[in-house]
Design a protein that fits this description.
The chain is built from 17 helices and two strands. It has one domain (about 15-480): Growth Hormone, Chain: A (Up-down Bundle), CATH 1.20.1250.20. About 60% of the residues are buried. By secondary structure, the chain is mainly α. The chain has a two-stranded antiparallel ribbon. The longest helix has about 35 residues, at about 355-390. A hairpin with a 5-residue loop joins strand 1 (about 190) and strand 2 (about 195-200).
Length: about 475
């Protein structure tokens, strides 16, 4: 049977745009809740950072465990609507609704009650997110068999993430600003169970923002679900179903996947380990405890980073085609390391705007990794089909997100534990000790650099370059025919 040309794009503009809108939904699902949590629970309701870190660890571990289960279920689904779309519709709908509800917190709860409110609502939200995200990532891997078009598809997803990224970064500022503009005049003073007055305007702002972002999750997620085509579905229908044990065992033997997974997880672990510190440094170190001003600095940083990354998205796609995916990933690791080095000097009360220099390097560096590594995951699925005869985009995507979310869950918890260990106390405002600020600044700088260095050495021998992947595709199409 003849093969199709190896570099012939087949994905329509509507499909690419739909997948890009899916990036908006997944970015909000992955980041919006934890961003807003810092403002609402730690800075406004004065819940202990270590207690919130414990909650994050619990729901992130559950989130990681549920991913392989959903990947297994999605890969083995043979419905008339496909393997991915039914779950994407259910997940986007549920996640959007729950996100709007979870910020209507009873303010008279004790610290323990607030912990349980956050843990339960977060468990529900991230479970719904898993139902959407795992099939969504699997859909991206089966939109096209073309080596370079996979990078273009990943670039559209990254563009969606970068468009929504500033809103994620600015969630604290947006909530605080909504509170000041719309709710400050009509609020009454509320004292929490510990006798501390609460900023109820900010809490109302968080509720309003929760509804807005929840609607964005629902609309963008549904658009992505209805616009994509599952091009490997007919191939999958001819295959027998696999057990979860078999899927996980065979996944664990795939050497290119293991290298890609470790590199991807290490990179994001280093970023997540200190991610929250950007917010706390802006509010308490640079803005002297002013939540509105400090979160505004964080918002501007987010706009700068994501807009630079968005402008670099087509450049990264072309760069990957010119120098190869492997070299583009290495360039991304180097650029992120340099941006992290600059943090120690650029996050300073002498000028909040210096951190925009960090954004100018962090945005392109992260774009290299986000776009190219997702493209590589589709190549890994071809490698798996060559050796096992099965299309398992769901379980591979789920295995990647399992390790990623597990790592980010631990990193997020450690983030808040490190904040407590440094002696941070939200009731002191900008009056934290010099030792506390020094610990926060050094952690913010060094953790991503260390993670990038380790990731580079793991990734050095990744074997699936363009020539190898072209050979795999040719052999697969000779065996079972082309994908159109």
């Amino acid at each position: 049977m003849s093969s199709t040309p190896l570099h012939q794009p087949i994905v329509s503009t509507k499909e690419k745009l739909g997948y890009g809108f899916g990036g908006v939904a997944t970015n909000f699902m992955n980041n919006a809740a934890t961003r807003l949590m810092n403002l609402v629970f730690v800075a406004t309701l004065h819940v202990s950072p270590s207690l919130m870190g414990t909650a994050m660890l619990v729901f992130r571990i559950w989130d990681a465990i549920s991913d392989p289960l959903l990947g297994f279920i999605s890969d083995n689904t043979r419905s008339r609507w496909g393997r991915r779309k039914p779950y994407m519709v259910v997940g986007a709908t549920a996640a959007g609704i729950i996100f709007g509800i979870m910020w209507f917190i009873p303010w008279d709860l004790t610290e323990s009650g607030l912990f349980w409110w956050w843990l339960i609502t977060a468990l529900l939200f991230f479970t719904a997110s898993t139902i959407y995200i795992v099939p969504y990532f699997a859909l991206g891997k089966e939109l096209t068999p073309d080596y370079h078009e996979r990078t273009v598809v990943a670039a559209f997803r990254a563009a969606g993430e970068k468009i929504s990224g500033p809103i994620n970064q600015g969630m604290p500022w947006l909530a605080a600003k909504l509170g000041v503009v719309f709710f400050a005049g009509g609020t009454v003073e509320v004292v929490n169970a510990q006798g501390v007055p609460l900023d109820t305007a900010t809490l109302w702002g968080a509720r309003a923002l929760g509804i807005i972002v929840g609607a964005a999750i629902l609309i963008s997620g549904l658009f992505a679900a209805f616009s994509g085509k599952e091009r490997f579905f007919n191939i999958a229908k001819k295959e027998g179903k696999s057990s979860l044990r078999m899927m996980l065992f065979e996944t664990a033997k795939n050497r290119p996947f293991l290298m890609l997974m470790c590199t991807h997880t290490l990179f994001w672990f280093g970023i997540a380990l200190v991610d929250f510190l950007g917010f706390f440094l802006n509010v308490y170190y640079i803005a002297d405890g002013d939540k509105l001003v400090g979160s505004g600095y964080q918002f501007v940083y987010g706009i700068g980073q994501h807009m630079v990354a968005l402008s670099m998205t087509p450049v990264v796609a072309q760069l990957s085609k010119r120098i190869g995916k492997h070299a583009t990933v290495n360039l991304g690791l180097l650029t992120v390391s340099f941006a992290s080095f600059l943090k120690y000097f650029c996050y300073t009360p002498d000028g909040w705007y210096y951190q925009l220099i960090v954004a100018a390097f962090m945005g392109p560096g992260q774009s290299c990794l986000i776009i190219v590594m997702q493209s590589m995951m589709a190549d890994v699925c071809d490698h798996d089909e060559l050796h096992t005869g099965k299309r398992r985009e769901g379980i591979y995507g789920a295995a990647l997100t399992f390790t990623l979310k597990f790592g980010i869950g631990i990193a997020g918890a450690l983030n808040l534990f490190l904040l407590s260990m440094a002696g941070f106390d939200s009731t002191l405002g900008g009056g934290q000790s010099a030792a506390t600020f020094a610990g926060m600044r050094w952690s913010f700088t060094l953790a991503p650099i260390a993670a990038c260095v380790i990731a580079y050495f793991i990734f050095r021998r990744y074997p699936l370059d363009e020539k190898v992947c072209a050979g795999i595709r040719a052999e697969l199409e000779a065996r079972r025919g082309p994908v159109n």
